Amino acid sequence: MTHWMRRMGVAVVVIGVSLARLGAATTAAEVLAQRKQLDEGPRHWRDRERHMTLSLERSAGAAEQRQLVTYERQLPGDEEQAILFFEAPAAIRGVGLLSMSHPTRQDEQWVYLPALKRSRQIGTSRSARQERFADTDLTFLDLDLLRDMTSWTESEAPSTLLGEETVDDVATYRIERKPVLPDVYYARVVLWIGTDDLVTRRVEFFESGTDPVKRIAESDIRTVDGIPVAHRLEAVTPAEGTRTVMNVTSIRFNQGLEDGLFTQRALARGKR
After folding, report:
1. pLDDT per residue of the chain (272 residues) written in tens, 0 to 9
2. What's the rounded Cα separation, in Å, for the pair 110 and 253?
3. How far is Cα 177 from Cα 263, in angstroms, rounded to an integer?
4. What's the per-residue H, E or C state across 96-155?
5. Which residues does 2 contact at the CB level (< 8 Å), separation at least 6?
6. How far apart are CA 89 and CA 243, in angstroms?
7. Is the separation of the CB atoms in 174 and 165 below 8 Å?
8. In what helix (H) or strand (E) does residue 14 lie, and over which residues does it extend?
9. How far apart are CA 131 and CA 109, in angstroms?
10. Which of 124, 153, 236, 240 has its CA 20 to 30 A from that of 57?
């Protein structure tokens, strides 16, 4: 048996054991702990490169089509880095975003606008964090939260299991989290996580009311290098009647992305 086959065999056993425990999960904290175990074990990745198409649908008029590429990597201590560049259409080619996610201090973000030939750091005020990124339905805060939520502790965002619900023919756990972090401006976040694979299928963000201010659906789950990947993400802002749809056209894991890629200099230089 080859070394690769032995590694795959161990991964399958670990996944099987982890998923077998799901039947014993009685609290949201247990479900989230099991997902974290998978994400830090057989589903862990060091870095990834994703190419995506983007469709911006507004209440009137034809949808805008865009293309972008993202590079991300996970570092020890729950540190994460990400940089993305728009590739098309020509009007926004070169627009980029650099994000640094820190577990113990304020996250940092810089956006680069080719027309101005300079980058600017996104402010830490509520209005700055809730600004839409490049006219999508995702704010700068949303982009951070989609990365940070999986590392929240119970003290940072107490969780409650609201029950089970079927989403697109998939059985899911419905879990509510109430973040108490000072830089998270949502009062509640509700997650729908698959009971069989612990992959997120839906996220809803709430402010003070009972209706979500943002809905995010993840679908078309495919396994790439042993890692389940949502190839379609749909973000909706109900009050404004807008929707952003992202489709992953290609993805690669563990390419050994270099330190120099995640810098302001690289942001201004453009695509890798």
Report:
1. 443 433 444 344 344 434 444 444 589 999 999 999 999 999 999 999 999 999 999 877 778 999 999 999 999 888 999 999 999 999 999 999 999 998 888 889 999 999 888 899 998 888 888 899 888 999 989 988 998 898 899 999 999 999 999 999 999 999 999 999 988 999 999 999 999 999 999 999 999 889 999 999 999 999 999 999 999 999 999 999 999 999 999 999 999 999 999 999 999 998 76
2. 24
3. 33
4. EEEEEECCCCCCEEEEEECCCCEEEECCCCHHHHCCECCCCCCEHHHHHHHHHHHHCCCC
5. none
6. 19
7. yes
8. helix 3-20
9. 12
10. 124
At position 97, the amino acid (one-letter code) is L
The structure tokens listed for 245 are 């749809």
Look at the block and give the residue holding tokens 């509700």. Answer: 190
